[in-house]
Amino acid sequence: MRTYNAFPEPIGGFTVGRIQMDLEYTASDHSTRELTAFVYYPSDSSEGKTTSTYMFPEVYELLNEQPLVTEDIFSIDIKTRCYDDLALSGKEKRYPVLFYVCGGGGSPEWGTVLCTDLASMGYVVVSIGHPNSTMYKREDGRLFNVSKDFSDVLIAFSEDPEMLELAGKMEMRPDDETAIAMCRDVLTLPVLAKLTEYSELQAEDVRYVADYLYQLDSGEQNSIFKDRLLLHIGMGIAGHSYGGLTTAMVCRDDERFACGIGLDSGAFGLLGSDLKKPFLLLYNEPNYNMNAIIGANNSMETYYFSVDRVGHLDYCDIVFTSVNEKLRGERDAMEMRNLVTDYTKNFFDHYILQKAASVESLTYDGVDLIKKTSNK
């Protein structure tokens, strides 16, 4: 298996800056949510600085405390292509905004390659550390690991007899009726209730940070983003795996978001939901069985792209940092990076910036548009 000592150079023309912000608020369940957020953004110069640290070593060590992790998964000994605390580029008056949501049990840095690529092409991209369901180090130095309760919920789901029985019946490339029926059966499992609650809290985190971005843009909070964020056209959001559920919930519940992307994600908590936003799903078979209900209910365009020869974790940075060959698919890491970045950028360029870019025009071997639906 090929190893990498650096992430690929960003695709776009901007140098990429990164800042970290600690935030805190009271959620709807009355819990105090202590967040951190990494913001990737366009800059004009690296100012002679060294590249940002990828993941803090203390955060990486938290993996050993997670019961689901029984062997080495990835290395953090890799060079990023972003720089801490740069000036915001002066090439444009304002920049559009995206959010990225990592998978459950992961870290907000796991999307560094995609976030850096998108920032290099002129987007401001926010990746949040979510209490209980992700691991991170705040600027104040405190460490947050995945909670035992969240780990227990994930284990319960992975071992649930009803879920295992349904998984054994999932077909590759099922017809719509079969996939929707299977998806309904999955989404009504009692074991999903608690997972859905955590995802809803993550969606609240995203909405709170979105509120904060409005304060940064207005100057209510001092930052480099005063009068520099292009918010009125709508924001975009993408999420990998469990983070894709949060992405869909944000699209459904917050009119400020124009569209969303789920990277090999499901539809937990979305049984009766009309997202009312364009949505793209990039996934491995037989995952259509887990998310078919999204397109069946959505009144806006829903794209389903099936990708062959990939592993579940190939959609995040582990495509470059993996030390465990069993976790990787068969595609070259650079090809997979280009694939995910192209589909993500083209989708957001079209639905946020109103460019002519189209995901349907992209051609990658083994990537098929299975379905495009709209129930308008």
Describe the overall structure.
This protein has 376 residues and is of the alpha/beta class. The chain has one domain: Rossmann fold, CATH 3.40.50. 32% of the residues lie in helices and 20% in strands. The protein has helices at residues 57-62, 112-120, 148-159, 161-169, 176-187, 192-218, 242-253, 288-297, 318-321, 333-351, and strands at residues 15-26, 32-43, 83-84, 95-101, 124-129, 136-137, 143-144, 229-230, 235-240, 257-263, 279-283, 302-307, 367-373. Strands 1, 2, 3, 4, 5, 8, 9, 10, 11, 12 and 13 form an eleven-stranded mixed beta sheet that branches. It has a two-stranded antiparallel sheet with strand order 6-7. The longest helix is centred in the middle third of the chain and has 27 residues, at 192-218. The model has no long low-confidence stretch (mean pLDDT 95).
Distance from N terminus to C terminus (CA atoms, Å) equals 47 Å
What are the segments in which pLDDT stays under 50 over at least 5 consecutive residues? none
| CATH third-level topology | Rossmann fold
How many whole angstroms does the radius of gyration measure? 19 Å
Helix content: 25-40%
What is the averaged pLDDT score? 95
* Number of contiguous helices: 10
Count of the domains: 1
| Shape label | globular
Spell out the helices and strands N to C: EEHEEHEEEHHHHEEHEEHEHHE
CATH class: Alpha Beta
Give the second-level CATH assignment, the architecture. 3-Layer(aba) Sandwich
> How much of the sequence is in beta strands?
15-25%
- Beta strand count: 13
* Major sheet characteristics: 11 strands, mixed
